[in-house]
Design a protein that fits this description.
Elements lengths: L5 E10 L10 H13 L2 E8 L17 E6 L6 H11 L5 E4 L2 E5 L9 H12 L8 E7 L10 H12 L6 E6 L9 H4 L4 E6 L6 H11 L20 E3 L2 E5 L9 H17 L3
Parallel strand pairs: 1-2, 1-3, 3-5, 6-7, 6-8, 8-10
Antiparallel strand pairs: 4-5, 9-10
Helix pairs in contact: 1-7
Length: 273
């Protein structure tokens, strides 16, 4: 979608971050750099739940009077509906506070353009795998804190099934709730399996935890930046050929999805005024 530049407004990209994995914040800064390069906003900043700068520090970073807040999160759930509004003192889609106007968009993971990014990543990681002989897993964390946390992943699995991409099966699976990704070999009936982590970063979960659950690592390894070479595909485990991709959030076109969410926000709330 064409984006109209906002030279007098600021963009605030909000991420989770991690104190345990040095790569967790890398995609957020990459997306910010790409949006700065495009000249889409007068200011572009990042803030995090578990890294610096924190959400509560964010307002001190911003000079502009109008701020678009985009959660660089996968789903509408505990963080986007409870934590971020509380930490940034947001009261709804638009909040006026202390001389600034804050616009709060939906998270990037629920935007319709994510379906194309997932299919692109699946084809890149397994270019020789016949989709008719392949099960595609979209994998998330899963949590009992908010029932909406799995909705985006279930929606994407349904959209890919309906897309005509030709995969024999498209399944959603999770680390901490059923269906468990650890049971992937029993869930998949095809000889080939492609697993795409529906996470923003190649951090603790997608790069260190899920490989153990898949059986391609015996124990959590070092962070991605501390290895010379990314994992090699395919892996021959549990009687199947398994392809494992990096997290969908590392896709460089995710910067376009951030701008798409801002454009959709304006279309819904500003053009209606």
């Amino acid at each position: 979608m064409p984006f109209t530049p906002k030279p007098h407004a600021a963009l605030l990209i909000v991420g989770h971050g991690s104190t345990e994995n040095p790569d967790s914040s890398t995609p957020y800064f990459d997306h910010a750099d790409e949006i700065r390069r495009l000249g889409a906003f007068g200011e572009v900043h990042c803030c995090f739940w578990k890294e610096e700068p924190s959400m509560r520090e964010a307002e001190y970073l911003i000079d502009a009077d109008e701020v678009y807040v985009v959660p660089d999160f996968i789903s509408e759930g505990y963080f986007t509906q409870d934590v971020i509004p509380r930490e940034l003192q947001l009261e709804g889609p638009t909040t006026s506070r202390a001389g600034k106007t804050w616009h709060y968009t939906l998270p990037v993971g629920v935007h319709p353009s994510m379906t194309g990014l997932l299919l692109r990543r699946a084809r890149e990681v397994a270019p020789d795998a016949d989709p008719a002989q392949t099960t595609l897993f979209i994998v998330g964390h899963g949590t009992g804190l908010n029932q909406n946390s799995t909705k985006a992943i279930k929606d994407q699995a349904a959209l890919i099934k309906a897309s005509g991409a030709g995969y024999a099966e498209v399944l959603d699976a999770y680390m901490e709730e059923q269906p468990f990704i650890a049971e992937w070999a029993a869930l998949a009936t095809t000889p080939n399996v492609v697993v795409v982590p529906f996470f923003i970063a190649d951090g603790l979960h997608s790069y260190q935890d899920i490989p153990v659950l898949l059986g391609i690592e015996a124990e959590p390894g070092e962070a991605a930046s501390q290895r010379e070479v990314f994992r090699h595909n395919p892996h021959h485990v549990r009687g199947k050929t398994l392809y494992y991709s990096s997290a969908i959030g590392t896709e460089r076109h995710l910067a376009d999805v951030i701008l798409d969410q801002v454009a959709d926000f304006d279309a819904k709330y500003h053009e209606a005024r």
